[in-house]
Write a structure and sequence with these properties.
Pfam families: Neur_chan_LBD, Neur_chan_memb. By secondary structure, the chain is of the alpha+beta class. 38% of the residues lie in helices and 25% in strands. Among the domains are: 198 residues, Neurotransmitter-gated ion-channel ligand-binding domain (Acetylcholine Binding Protein, Chain: A); 108 residues, Up-down Bundle (Methane Monooxygenase Hydroxylase, Chain G, domain 1), CATH 1.20.58.
């Protein structure tokens, strides 16, 4: 009985020993494959590529030098720093994602413990000398010597240079302040033609997922494509920027419209009022001041003119005419009818305007005339300054009643005519302005 138990124990011990040996064998075989990639592997790869294989960054990274290197570019816009419409310059911030395949940067990962990606400074490898073609500042390549590029074992190179770009942008102010501008960012590989380096846009094109909204402009759209008809290696990113008009509506457009209404109201003041001339001059100076403010915001070119600028020039011209007419009215109001008789056509105009107003005039009655008021009807006038009324229709036959027209009456009638004409003209101009802006 004792011997039998001991045999079972020995058998268990042998099975345990076999399991330990098997586990040790598995660990010896497979554990080295778990912890594979080390810094020594990366150093070995760089040594192989740049020392043993003598990598030369001046050589285009394709074995067949008659073929073009396909370079893919995407642009991620992070912000619009400034859009100076007067200087016609756009300053943006963002980064480019530039990728290509380098035939000479390849290795077998199995020889380097599965290492498939390596980092290196951008100046150590070939890269397209891409720069902003329509930049305002001096020529400067993308990135810096401190920036790294990554490349994989199959030669796929990825370069992400960040840049603050200042480019030119032709401004169309026709519909200011409701305008939309189209600005181009033109990237080109300066040293190559498109038969040597072909710039194409990536699947993402122009990205706005990290864009921070600007307080003055809205990105209304974007586009990307090659420069048509060009043999250069060029790619164009287009930004469509729509102006936010609220600031200009409150500070420029609305004051101009109110001054335009006040320009018409000059003819509401009677000629006897001493403020008529000063009021018209004040409106003129206010419009002129606003015109200088608007001109300071717009580019100094003659390519196109804004409808709003044309409207302001018309209002200033009309204000100049208003001041001139006001001075002429004051001159008429100061005349004496006995020295300067009133022309017959002005008398007719005054009568017509006075009928629309009240059908009553100042009447010269005898001292014994009754206090009863009557509305008189005009039949004919005997000279240039007085009208004879049919006495049988209005007053007793003994009354010698006449209607007297003075220069002040003429001035007041002109006010009515000019006010109505001004309202019609301003309404037509505003209608035409709104129709053109709506287009």
């Amino acid at each position: 009985m004792y011997t039998n138990v001991s045999g079972r124990q020995c058998s268990s011990i042998w099975h345990l020993r076999d399991s330990v040996v098997l586990l040790s064998f598995i660990l010896i075989v497979y554990v080295p494959k778990i912890n594979t990639q080390t810094s020594d592997d990366a150093k070995s790869i760089l040594k192989k590529l740049f020392t043993t294989d003598a990598y030369n960054k001046a050589v285009r990274p394709t074995y067949d030098q008659s073929l073009a290197v396909n370079v893919s570019i995407s642009y991620s816009l992070t912000g619009i720093i400034e859009f100076d419409s007067q200087k016609e310059s756009l300053t943006t911030s963002g980064y480019l994602i530039i990728t290509w395949n380098d035939y000479y940067l390849q290795w077998d990962p199995a020889n380097y413990n599965g290492t498939s990606i390596v980092f290196i400074h951008q100046d150590k490898v070939w890269k397209p000398d891409i720069a902003l073609q329509n930049g305002i500042l001096e020529f400067k390549g993308l990135g810096s010597s401190d920036l790294l590029v990554t490349f994989t074992n199959d030669g796929f190179v990825s370069w992400w240079p960040y840049a603050i770009l200042q480019s030119t942008c032709t401004v169309d102010i026709t519909y200011f302040p409701f305008d939309t501008q189209s600005c181009n960012l033109i990237f080109t590989a300066w040293s190559y033609y498109n038969t040597e380096v072909l710039l194409t846009y990536g699947s993402n094109g122009l990205m706005l997922n990290q864009y921070e909204e600007n307080s003055a402009w809205i990105v209304a759209g974007s586009d990307v494509g090659p420069k048509k008809g060009s043999t250069d290696a060029t790619l164009i990113f287009t930004l469509k920027l729509k102006r936010k008009p609220l600031f200009y509506l409150l500070n420029i457009v609305l004051p101009v419209l109110m001054l335009s209404v006040m320009n018409v109201c000059v003819f509401v003041l009677p000629a006897k009022a001493g403020e008529k001339a000063s009021f018209s001059v004040t409106v003129f100076l206010s419009l002129f001041l606003l015109l200088t403010v608007v001109a300071a915001m717009l580019p100094q070119n003659s390519t196109n003119v804004s409808f709003f600028g044309i409207f302001m020039v018309i209002m200033i011209s009309y204000s100049t005419l208003t001041v001139t007419l006001t001075m002429f009215q004051l001159l008429l109001n100061s005349r004496d009818v006995n020295i300067n008789p009133i022309p017959s056509w002005l008398i007719t105009l005054t009568i017509l305007m006075s009928r629309r107003r009240s059908r009553t005039f100042s009447k010269v009655r005898p001292a014994a005339q009754s206090q009863n008021a009557h509305i008189i009807s005009i039949s004919e006038y005997t000279d240039e300054t007085t009208l004879q009324v049919k006495k049988s229709e209005v007053l007793p036959p003994s009354a010698d009643t006449k209607l007297k027209v003075t220069w002040n009456n003429v001035s007041n009638s002109l006010d009515i005519v000019l006010f109505l004409v001004s309202v019609i003209i301003i309404s037509l101009i505003l209608t035409l302005l709104m129709v053109n802006v709506a287009k």
